[in-house]
Amino acid sequence: GESVGLHLPTLSVQEGDNSIINCAYSNSASDYFIWYKQESGKGPQFIIDIRSNMDKRQGQRVTVLLNKTVKHLSLQIAATQPGDSAVYFCAEKTNSGYSTLTFGKGTMLLVSP
Amino acid sequence: DTEVTQTPKHLVMGMTNKKSLKCEQHMGHRAMYWYKQKAKKPPELMFVYSYEKLSINESVPSRFSPECPNSSLLNLHLHALQPEDSALYLCASSQGSGGGVRVEQFFGPGTRLTVL
Questions:
Q1: Mutate to test the interface with A, among B104, B112, B113 (most CBs of A within 10 A)
Q2: DSSP states of B54-98 as a string?
């Protein structure tokens, strides 16, 4: 299930389940979004991106959905594996002049065997 | 080579020390970034370099001084830091800085900084 801790929301799933991680973004003018995965002791790793002129994009085992009406982004991970355990951040590109990213708070995904 | 490297991996320094963090990429990217990340928090942007020129400083205290010697290298010079500056410092690069080029940022592994 999903719980919101003091600092970092956590989603706990069983291996093989599908996971859905949600993100609410702040700026209706944002035109580009990225999902990053950050494992303990490592830098964020690019997973998948989507531009604001799309509402869905699929990668390998991952799908990103964008709902601009409610400013909501989600990351779906199919057949979640223990190696997927990490903190997941959504990021939005909010400045039209430079590619600066504003990161969401993050969700910790815990996958148990 | 799709890697951003950072040195050192770990750094412990006193409040009177001067040290530098280094970042390198060989992807031909023209934009480079410094972020600060506290535990269980998202990365926070500090500086942006575009074509070796400082384009964004997010009101970072002057005890942090960035430098971009060339298009592949980015340094962060540290002087008179405070214990609250202890954090993971991440470097990132992207192909460009907007205008239709790929904007995804590639991150290095970070330098874990502890200020005593």
A1: B104
A2: EEEE-S--TTEEEEEEETTEEEEEEES--GGG-EEEEEEEES-SS
